[in-house]
Amino acid sequence: MGLKLCLSSTLKFSPISILRPISQSTKNPLRRSLLLVRALSADAAAGTTTIAPDTTPDDFRVAKAPQWKAAIDFKWIRENKEAVAANVKNRNSNANIDLVVELYDKLMNVQKEVEGLRAERNVVANRMKGKLEPSERQKLVEEGKNLKERLVTLEEDLLNLTDELQQEAQCVPNMTHPDVPVGGEDCSSIRKMVGKASEFSFSVKDHVQLGKDLNIFDFDAAAEVSGSKFYYLKNEAVMLEMGLINWAVSEVMKRGFTPLITPEIVRSSVVEKCGFQPRGTNTQVYSIEGSDQCLIGTAEIPVGGIHMDSIIPESSLPLKYVAFSHCFRTEAGAAGAATRGLYRVHQFSKVEMFILCRPEESNSFHEELIEIEEELFSSLGLHFKTIDMATQDLGAPAYRKFDVEAWMPGLGRYGEISSASNCTDYQSRRLGIRYRPESSIPPKKGKGSSTPTRFVHTLNATACAVPRMIICLLENYQQEDGSVVIPEPLRRFMGGLEIITPKIQIRC
Amino acid sequence: MGLQWCLSSTLKLSPLSILRPISQSTKIPLRRSLLVRALSAATVPTTIASAITPDDYRVVKAPQWKAAIDFKWIRENKEAVAANVKNRNFNANIDLVVELYDKLMNVQKEVEGLRAERNVVANRMKGKLEPSERQKLVEEGKNLKERLVTLEGDLLKLTDELQQEAQCVPNMTHPDVPVGGEDCSTIRKMVGKPREFSFFVKDHVQLGKDLNIFDFDAAAEVSGSKFYYLKNEAVMLELGLINWAVSEVMKRGFTPLTTPEIVRSSVVEKCGFQPRGTNTQVYSIEGSDQCLIGTAEIPVGGIHMDSIIPELSLPLKYVAFSHCFRTEAGAAGAATRGLYRVHQFSKVEMFILCRPEESNSFHKELIEIEEDLFSSLGLHFKTLDMATEDLGAPAYRKFDVEAWMPGLGRYGEISSASNCTDYQSRRLGIRYRPESSVPPKKGKGSSASTQFVHTLNATACAVPRMIVCLLENYQQQDGSVVIPEPLRPFMGGLEIITPKSK
């Protein structure tokens, strides 16, 4: 398989370095082109990238201690060591469970020692309060000093161990739903197939050709102004984009989701807590010069951040958001993959669904999310398949992931248009999102607060990734004369437009 | 006045360093509320605080690109150009520009002369010569070559120096523009009047809180200050405003566009902004020469850069939707509450490329469109003809619209319309080829020589400022907010936003 990234505790590098977007996988060039949406939302078959032989030493550099702590359940890892290790193996991750447990045990021991020493120091301090012979006092003072020195050393060890443990433990991917197929992408199973490929009586064009004839894209000017993989949308493509966004937000709102528009610049720590890696080699994340801020690759990040470091009352759950944002991705490492047109771009609009819920409900909300997606795409008349992604294609945060791949006749294959992940408590332990279960037993008078808090589960799912949808609509609804029919549900979000027709143009 | 930026040719400063957004002006604290103008106008000389670091005066390397400035014209109109610089309170040094240009012309002549001499020598060497004569010619040839190399080096340097100085020079000014500071700006038009309230008005922050449609606190944690989430009906307001604005402007014959929001920094500079100065408004991307746009004016201006447009394609009229990103550096202390001054916002921008003789009338057309749009929403506002010291370097003339914001108790800028004449097109290299009435002679090739287009830009809708206006003006006593009729079809028919029991 690929090179192992989390080699041993002697090579200390950012645990999150294994969270490389699948798009960097060189093992399957075709796969790489399909993973626009997934590249970030699932992030990285942990450690499965086939690293090209000219990988720079940077990839293995020692990273400084994480700036924040994930509330990982080390005790649980220890108690379920075999299952956790088996999961790591299934996912082809390079997390080192033995090391995690070893560090945890060490930490616990040092902690005990520290507590012991502190107790002894208290004893000494107390004894010094009483009447003492000078020689006895002197002995105690010595003892106290000695204890203090040992304590300082041990406390430092404690800090180091805590950091090391964090680094190693942050490498550990989420557990996996028992129904998820084990293996590589060829093991992913099809959950559902909707519609069938439409038959064309003429030679189909791809979206780039269609767009050119309809005068609705400009890639060349964008390459001059911004660089490759940028684009201008013109004329009816603008109406398509706006129509898709309005339609998607409206449809998901109808299903009880709270609409949001989010910041697109966020602190890099928030990006990390969601399971992405802003500063690794070949990162998908753009950073802002001179600050600790980044551009988001998906609204999952700022939405996940809304409730960070909070305790949500149970009665507020589930919280369901539908968020619109622009998304920015470097697509580093995606060289060679199909990059023509809108398929893989640096900037795009996306409508994202996000749910925070109680743990026992996340599986059913995962089903709900994929159903919403399937309904949306069906209503537009698309032909697609829903795939239960196999263990090696899950990103570190995902407990289970369903991808939707739609038929793109101009490209002659299926292309990913959305992804729905159940991240259980992976993100919430990092973002610090808890809820307080309503206790059926009223708290005793004077005993203060109620039941202890638990971590929520989080889920995210793409309602609409605009460029991929534009490809689907143009290629599937093209007519022989080059015009494109607008599917009925979108028309009222496009001022009633029913068809995009080629125009006679004056070219500049 | 402020410290002089373009001091002399010995201090090579990036000419663009004077292009500071007005928002950095400390002399007029109220002015700093000018979110939209901050970038679209770019710069007046700032009253510089005494804590300026030496960095501000560092020698900047030669500009990476050349503006096609008409030096000859500057020279021939030196007094007018200098007077204009003074009126605008800029620090461009016209004498120096002319001096460098003259030097350049002289060196150019010398170089041509030397080249001619070299050709003569080379030709003479082709013939039969006495060895001593040949030797003399060889020496002469060598001598000429050395002098040429030196002079050509001078030529390059002079060209760079001239560019740096000349790029400092702001656009000329429309004769009707009032001369002076902001108190000299004149009111072109007043529309409507402030609504009278029978109850105590709230500002948009309070209204938003009661309606549960904003979240500033979470955004401060996730991103930093001056960021925000829009929630619930505010999302519908934003989407509705964008759809409405694009739709309305399309009806008037503008081509809709969505644009990249990451662009090369050279494009930002060519539009008249300064990505890398101290207190720049521009976010840069780490590890690249790219920046985030502060306005769609930039990527739209870039579409036709380095091109020649056929005359019959003009005018080109675009309505562009984009997100805009601004650092708002140097805006400390200004009214920063709520949506008034933010780092990220949505904006619908109009942009026109036209023939020079038409730009004044298109400027009027743009401001009329803005006035129609804002009137139709029932806003009370005034249109200002901005005085010379409040024009940015690119603007020949600038109209700002300030709308009444009752919650804030004052007028706030909601849009800006600038005629940049050929300032941007000379930098972006956007020309057009006039249809020649005389058919070109056979074999003579091409037609009439090209000219620079004029460019104009105007805000159709800057969403956060519009949200402030709508919330504050349409608030009801019970805290609900009525949606003006033209927006309702773009908001699924929503007529009113009501407080919810929480």
Automatic annotation (TrEMBL), chain A:
PROSITE patterns: AA_TRNA_LIGASE_II (PS50862). CDD domains: SerRS_core. L-serine binds at residues 298, 329, 352, 460. One of its GO terms (molecular function) is ATP binding. SUPFAM superfamilies: Class II aaRS and biotin synthetases, tRNA-binding arm. The record marks 462 as: Important for serine binding. The keyword Transmembrane does not apply. GO terms for biological process: seryl-tRNA aminoacylation. Residues 100-164 form a coiled coil. Its EC number is 6.1.1.11. InterPro entries: aa-tRNA-synt_IIb, aa-tRNA-synth_II, aa-tRNA-synth_II/BPL/LPL, Ser-tRNA-ligase_type_1, Ser-tRNA-synth_1_N, SerRS_1_N_sf, SerRS_core, tRNA-bd_arm. Residues 254-487 form the Aminoacyl-transfer RNA synthetases class-II family profile domain. GO terms for cellular component: cytoplasm. NCBIfam families: serS (TIGR00414). This is serine--tRNA ligase. It comes from Olea europaea subsp. europaea.
UniProtKB/TrEMBL annotation, chain B:
Residues 251-484 form the Aminoacyl-transfer RNA synthetases class-II family profile domain. It comes from the Eukaryota. GO terms for biological process: seryl-tRNA aminoacylation. One of its GO terms (molecular function) is serine-tRNA ligase activity. Keywords: Aminoacyl-tRNA synthetase, ATP-binding, Coiled coil, Ligase, Nucleotide-binding, Protein biosynthesis. Residues 97-161 form a coiled coil. InterPro entries: aa-tRNA-synt_IIb (IPR002314), aa-tRNA-synth_II (IPR006195), aa-tRNA-synth_II/BPL/LPL (IPR045864), Ser-tRNA-ligase_type_1 (IPR002317), Ser-tRNA-synth_1_N (IPR015866), SerRS_1_N_sf (IPR042103), SerRS_core (IPR033729), tRNA-bd_arm (IPR010978). Its EC number is 6.1.1.11. SUPFAM superfamilies: Class II aaRS and biotin synthetases, tRNA-binding arm. It is an enzyme of class 6 (ligase). Gene3D superfamilies: Bira Bifunctional Protein, Domain 2 (3.30.930.10), Serine-tRNA synthetase, tRNA binding domain (1.10.287.40). ATP binds at residues 326-328, 342-345, 413-416. The record marks 459 as: Important for serine binding. GO terms for cellular component: cytoplasm. L-serine binds at residues 295, 326, 349, 457. The keyword Nucleotide-binding applies. This is serine--tRNA ligase.
